[in-house]
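Memo subject: From amino acid sequence to C-alpha cells
Keywords: amino acid chain, backbone geometry, C-alpha cells, three-dimensional fold.
Body of memo: The sequence and its C-alpha cells, given next.
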Amino acid sequence: MQLSTKHLLGIRDLHPKDVQLILETAKQFKEVLQRPIKKVPSLRDVTIVNLFYENSTRTRISFELAEKRLSADTINFSSSGSSVSKGETLLDTVNNILSMKVDMVVMRHSATGAPHFLSQHIPAAIVNAGDGINEHPTQALLDALSITEKLGELKGKKVAIIGDIMHSRVALSNIYLLTKMGAEVTVAGPPTLIPKYLTDSFGVHVTYNVKEALDWCDVANVLRIQLERQNQVLFSSLREYNRAYGITKSLLSSLSKEIIIMHPGPINRGVELDSDVADSGQSIILDQVENGVAVRMAVLYLLSGRREANA
C-alpha cells in the first residue's frame, strides 16, 4: 500500500486509510527499535534535510534519530547563524539546499502555511514538523499510536484535549485525526484560550470545566500554555491557571475511573500538570516520546516510496 499524498503537510489532507497505514507501519518499525541492532537500510542513499526555522528539541531529535535508524543521509539546518539572518528568502534557502540533491525536507516554521508554500515550489517531499498555529501532524500520529496501544482502537474512544487550544497546532492536528478515525473529542480550558469556531466547524464539544471533561473522557491530552504565542493577557496568572485548570493528583483521585494522561511536551510542571501526575502510572508521556521515533520512521519511509523495508 501507498500513501495517497506525496507530502505530509497536515492530518486534514490524509484519508483514514493513510492514517491506518502510517500507524501499522510505525508498529513494524517499533519492533525494529526493540532489536539489539536498531538500524535498517530502508532509506540508504536518500538525503533528508531538517529545516528548522523555530527552536525545537524533542521533535528535531526524534526526526534525526528516525532518519539515522533508516540509514538516511541527513543535513541539519537552523535559521540562526545561516544566510536567513542576512535576508535570504525561504525559497532561496531551500533551492540552494535542493541543488545538493536533497530528496526530502522536514520543516518547522513559525509561519502558518510555510510547508504548503514550499510543496508548491520544489520537487522534494515535504514533512511538516509544525507550522505556526496550524498543524503538527506527526505529533497527532504518535499520540494516536500511543492511545491505540493502551485502548486497542480510536473509534468510540473519548479524548479530552485540555489547555491552550487557541495557540496549539498539536490540538488542531489531534482534533482532525481523532474525529477522522471515529473518536469523540471534548476541548476544555479557559474561554479565552478556546476558539469559538471549534463547535461549528469541527463538531467537538467545548467545556470550561476541567472536572467535567475528566469525568467524561478515557484519555486526557494536556497541553502547554504557550506564552510565547500570546500577544495579550488571556488569564490572570499561571498560579490561578493551575488552581482552575491544572491537573493534580487530588483531582484525578476524585474521579470514578482511572484515565490515561498524555502531554506533547515540554511540560510546565506545576502549571498545566503537577509532577506527581506527570510521573504517575496513569501517564504515558514517555511512551509518546518512544512512539515518536517509530511514527517518524514510518512517515519518512512511506513518503520515500521505497518498498524494501527490511523491517
User: Anything to note?
Assistant: The CA atoms of residues 159 and 188 lie 11 Å apart.
